[in-house]
Fold:
Amino acid sequence: MNPVIKIQELNHYYQEAGRKKQILFGVNLEINPQEVVILTGASGSGKTTLLTLIGCLRSVQEGSLKVLEHELKGASEVERMKLRQRIGYIFQHFNLLDFMTVLQNVMLSLELQKNFTPAEAKRKSTEILQAVGMGKHLNAYPRDLSGGQKQRVAIARALVHRPPLILADEPTSALDRHTGQEVVELMTALAKEQGSAVLIVTHDSRIFNITNRIVRMEDGQLDLDYQGRLSVALPTLTDKQLTDVIPKINILKFQPGEIVFRQGDLADKFYILMEGEVDVIQEDPGSEPKLLRKLGPNSYFGEVGLLQQGKRTATVKAADSTPAKAIVFERTDFQKMMLNSEMTSALLNYQAIKIEQREAKTRPSVYQQLPLANKELQILEDYCRQTSRSKIDVLSELVNQLPTQIKDSE
Ligand SMILES: Nc1ncnc2c1ncn2[C@@H]1O[C@H](COP(=O)(O)OP(=O)(O)OP(=O)(O)O)[C@@H](O)[C@H]1O
Ligand SMILES: [Mg+2]
Structure:
């Protein structure tokens, strides 16, 4: 099965005040037939730019971009036009033609295809409008419709010719919460029925639950593999738990030397370092600040204060030499993750205790160290059975995988 979209090392530049400004940096992405993918990321990160490149609305400057098995780098305007007819587009502001009825708006999309008779176009358009719940409004004009109704028409128009690829840019942003969710669910259900792949650009985390494939754009870079990074930092999370938490994360950046939090602050976030280094510093009154440890990529911090429901027990700041970037969880999302993964909870609690007992020199047996409850033991036993390994072996490995801070502090 060939991918519907295959992007390799795609760069893109705009001219700004006579200067060339790079917007996309080495983007790689593959989307398979029938896949539903959400593309999210901060405003200005380059999402629309990427979507318009995929949609053949801009020409490719650098790198490879294949859509429906056609290379767009170097493609002619005629080739791009032909491809555009095989793609369904849904935009934030509906883009319906005001002087045409609902039915005419949808039929237009089929008439552009040329291989439909007017009678066929009418029948197919009526059918899909009925499927999106607009059967009673065939002869209405867009100005007489609500936002949700307009978006349903836009969906019918984008899907009526059964395109193998559907692109949607912020399809819910002009709609209220309930309507937004409803139209996106409708769109993905129809797309599934037709076997189309769907790529949706959205900021709207309320629709993240329609798929488990969410890619993030960060300053023109795509998908820095958050799932992989989280699973390295927190090996006890299952794949399901990882896909559940990924939509909740945020990415924060810190300048060299910038304080992430101070000892004594209220604990409200949990951090997993992606890039750079941070220093963990003890700042007790009456004594010199003391560097407790340095943490590198894939280490986590901030859990001690959260687990104790209290204040930061140390100051953390980005190393002076380099900026730092971290995956960040808000307290409530961290707490939910702890509830959903008792193994992770056991390990983090264990670590927090170890940090508190920094002076303890010797390690008791692994079994005594890990406060495992029945359910956790069950998970562990299942895991051991699946992997045909002994409990002590797995536990020792987990303990040894605990971030370097434990080892350093002992
Ligand atoms: N035609 C253009 N000419 C010059 N710069 C542009 C052009 N279009 C976009 N940009 C710039 O490129 C960057 C990426 O823009 P883009 O519209 O792709 O972001 P986005 O992720 O879709 O943002 P949003 O979430 O706000 O829609 C921004 O800095 C924007 O100002
Ligand atoms: Mg945009």
About this structure: Residues 193 and 346 are 43 Å apart (CA to CA). Residues 14, 16, 23, 41, 43-49 surround adenosine-5'-triphosphate (ligand 1) (CB under 6 Å). The two ends are 52 Å apart (CA to CA).
